[in-house]
Amino acid sequence: MKGSMLSAEIAEPYAEALMSLAQSQNQVDRFGEDVRSLLSLLDSSPDLQEFLGNPVLSAENKKAVLRQIAGDGLHPTILNFLMLLVDRRRIIFVGGVLQHFQALLRKLNQTVLAEVTSAVELNDAQRQAISEKVKAISGAHQVELATKLNPELIGGVIIKVGSQVIDTSLRGQLRRIGLRLGRAA
C-alpha cells in the first residue's frame, strides 16, 4: 500500500507535465497513441520492466535500449521525456506515469474506461452494444474497452466502470439464484 501511494505521488506530477506538453504542442492524440503503445509494450515484456527498474544498470544502457525501442515511431518529446525519467532515476515509475497520463487523457476527452471480462472473445457487434450500454449508464461521450477472458464465467460478461460493476455472467446469475434459494430455505 505504501509503495503504491509513493508511486502515485511520483507518477502524477510527471503525467501532468507530459499532458501539459502534449496540450502546448497540440499533440494530445499523438501522445495518447504513443503512450498506449508504450504501455502495451511494457505489459507484454516483463523483461523490459525488470531491465528499466534495475538500479544496477547504467542510465546510458537504459537510454540506449529506449532509443532502440522508440526508433522513428515515437514522438521526439515522448522520447525526451523517457530520457528525463532515466536521468532523474524515475524510469521505474514509467508504467504508473503512462497509466496516469491515459487517465488524464480520458478525462480530457470525456471517455470512460470499461473493464469487460467475458467467457469468450467478443465480436464487434457485442463490443458496440457494450459501449452503448456504458455510454447510457455513465453519460460519457466515448468508451474505451479493456477486455479480459475468463472461461469460468461460463457465459455473459462482467462490466466494471469505475466503482460500478454490472455482472450479467452465468456464474453470477447462478450465484445469485443460490443465495436466494439459501434465504428461502
UniProtKB/TrEMBL annotation:
* NCBIfam families, alphabetized: ATP_synt_delta
| General function of this protein | This protein is part of the stalk that links CF(0) to CF(1). It either transmits conformational changes from CF(0) to CF(1) or is implicated in proton conduction.
What is this protein called in UniProt?
Answer: ATP synthase subunit delta
What is this entry's stated membrane topology?
A: Peripheral membrane protein
Gene of origin? Answer: atpH
Question: SUPFAM superfamilies this protein is in?
Answer: N-terminal domain of the delta subunit of the F1F0-ATP synthase
Pfam families from the xrefs? OSCP
The record's annotation in PANTHER family points to: ATP SYNTHASE DELTA CHAIN (PTHR11910)
The superkingdom of the source organism is Bacteria
- Report the main location listed first in the record: membrane
